[in-house]
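Trying the structure run again after the queue cleared.
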Amino acid sequence: MGDGRAIRVLLVDDHQVVRRGLRTFLEVQDDIEVVGEASDGAEGVARAEELRPDVVLMDVKMPGTGGIEALKQLRELGNPARVLIVTSFTEQRTVVPALRAGAGGYVYKDIDPDALAAAIRSVHAGHVLLQPEVADALLSQDDHGPGGGTGRGSTLTEREREVLGLIADGRSNREIARALVLSEKTVKTHVSNILMKLDLADRTQAALWAVRHGLTS
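Done. Tokens:
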């Protein structure tokens, strides 16, 4: 962390052994601090509101309130935590809804530990983490739903399409500004215009739209 503060992480998984394994690994990272745990989505939402973590590691399938519903509740509450889905489920029916609900990334429980730490840092930095297999799942989706279809894309300017492509590549506003030689304020304006024109809720949905419509590098 540039300011010396560790990334505060909340673990939400119904299996204690999984939470213990994640905590054991993450606690040896100098820049990551596990601030709490929860065993289901409802408890996860409550703990996220109480602890205000930077990143939530969220399982999808849990008794009671699942991860996707919990994610939706966090967004409705305006909780700023970035959510990284960590699950063993790879089906499109779980991948796509999670990302559309606002998850900052989606990784599998067999991920290499160092790659998981890197994923947490990336999501915390504002990047959208799309692994190749997740992108493949998105590319096979049809164009229904918010921002669906290519028609809306015709309203984007060439600069907005460049910004959108860089969002899909996982770039932060600062990195986009450097790449396009723009100010961060100008990039934020472009991002806002993109979301408005495509009728999307956030940059994660924008990244999904860009992947589906071939704007990634």
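The chain is about 50% helix and 10% strand. Worth checking whether this holds up in the mutant runs.
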